[in-house]
Amino acid sequence: MLVLKAPAGFRLRFDELAFAPGGDALAAAPSWGVTLWTSFADGARAEAVPLGDGVASQRLAFAPDGRTLFAGSDLLLAVDLASRVVRRVPLDRWHRLGFGVSPDGARLIVSERLGGTVGGAEGTRLTCRPTDDLDRPTWQLITQVDVLLPPAFPPGSHQFVQLESTHELMAERWSPRVVVRTLDTGAVLTETDLLPVPDYPDQAALSPDGLTLVVRLRDRIYANLIGVAGAAEVIANPSRKHFTGIAFHPSGRYLAATSNDKTVKLYDTTSWELTRTFTWDIGRVRSVAFSPDGTLAAAGSDTGKVVVWDVDL
Known about the structure:
- The protein is mostly beta strands.
- The strands form 7 sheets. A 4-stranded antiparallel β-sheet has the order 1-28-27-26, with no helix packed on it.
- The model is unreliable at about 115-120 (pLDDT under 50).
- The protein has strands spanning about 1-5, 15-20, 25-30, 35, 45-50, 60, 70, 75-80, 85-90, 95-100, 105-115, 125-130, 140-145, 145, 160-165, 175-180, 190-195, 205, 210-215, 220-225, 235, 245-250, 255-260, 265-270, 275-280, 285-290, 295-300, 305-310.
- A hairpin with a 3-residue loop joins strand 27 (about 295-300) and strand 28 (about 305-310).
């Protein structure tokens, strides 16, 4: 076990972590810019990668070749990791932004919550942009649905998965559905209604086999089999704290969850029972991630510290 630290002089809260595809670097999203560790040595300080004045980063996505890191919140930027040159993807500033990179690295899928209305109702714009030509989308759709979370990509397919809803933002309950769309045009392939949920979803994770979508709310986690309407396994938080982060182990056997306390909990995905708890004295833990080969895990805190440990499951 080792502890990584924020850049000198900063006390940051890390709400999202992402390992590079090669597992040799770790990125974190504080309230501004990006922090990046390229050395996993105890006490190593992160490099601060500024994204520009007033630009926040709440979402991170590495390109599969590890050369580019996409980051953003209401703006979307592409960081060339060799030169550290930051380029803004040509989008307007929106209320909410989601994005993800296709497994082959060729396409960037972006969902933008429109600032105005579409046909008298709030809507979302979906675009597909080649990663080697971000200025020119290959397709664009404007829908009257709300895309709740960033896209996820089933392995070995030309599809992406989104959690969508037609409810207004201030509705007391959400009735989300899992929508599978084709990468080629954005057309809907399948739609599956899920159980209504009492809160706005905070995060989703797709299992490595692409069959289960896990959705995190503040006080519970729903595990939904894609294509099975209504049915869901529910993980209730055993503490009074709310869930703050989730991540699948690459084997698919375990789901890790953080709860704004000192723990990282592992749940067996065959039974969704709690099987192991790690306790780390780094502050309140906000996020969790696994390296692509599953040998390392990392958890980020509200004190500017990240713990990294060897995974032995």
